Amino acid sequence: MNRIQLSQLAVLAAVAEGGGFRRAARELGVAPSAVSHAVSALEESLGIRLLARTTRSVAPTEEGRRLLESLKPALGEIGAALDALVENRDRPAGPLRITMPRLACEHLVAPRLGDFIALYPEIELEIVTRDQFEDIVAQGFDAGLRLGEHLEADMIAVGASPLWRASVVAAPSYFQDRPLPRHPRDLLDHRCIRRRFSSGSIYRWEFEKDGKALAADISGPLILPEDRLILVACLAGAGLAQLFDARVDDYVREGRLIRVLEDWCPPFDGFYIYYPSRRQMRPALRAFVDFFKFQ
Q1: Tell me, what's the pLDDT at 197?
Q2: Could you tell me if 159 and 244 are in contact, meaning their C-beta atoms sit under 8 angstroms apart?
Q3: Cα–Cα distance between 154 and 10 in angstroms, integer?
Q4: Which of 199, 201, 232 is nearest to 217 (CA)?
Q5: Domain count, the chain
């Protein structure tokens, strides 16, 4: 059975229930000729007469009656499913898939998940943490969280955090026999802990001062795949690291890390929730956006 036959079977059921083509046409909101054509096409494709037609009435043949009896449970289930969908269209419920970097999940989303689930117990939320930017449509996600500078122009974006900043830090032990860098070019004389993304690229440290942007090709003997490992190595004195303030603030306050090049590390746009369209937005997604957007 193909999709066309499925719609033709629905038309056949409407004709049999209404007792005629005109009544079925009014119920379906189409022309009587379209109803007649659909039934005729179905009979032709099956090679079986399904309706007996006279000038005064239309009734199922024996074959048509048996077919309709067999179809009745399935059509009833389809109708019930559609009715339930309409009834629940304004209630946040069902599966919701969101992609985001681990850092955004740890600092912005995970701490509030208990309250979110308590408020929306019928939402089945799945969070996938990945560093690379996702084509959320192609990958089957409802939405994602990413830094504002990485968003595509055709996405709807809603702020999910205040401004963020990345700092260059190192443990006090690292500077025992080394001078503090005063300019990004001084990093050439230092051991820098580099990060390789899952895409294979190595992150270039980015700086800005007085409106002038600069990207530094840093070097060092250590390359790690994620910022949590970089933080551990940095605390152990392995070298300089560039990490988001959310990762290092507590360690700086405790004196376990020292910030350098602060005048070259201004704040920038933080994280945004992004999704493809506002049209017919699912209630579950609307609930997520409203809950986690930055107030």
Answers
A1: 86
A2: no
A3: 39
A4: 201
A5: 3
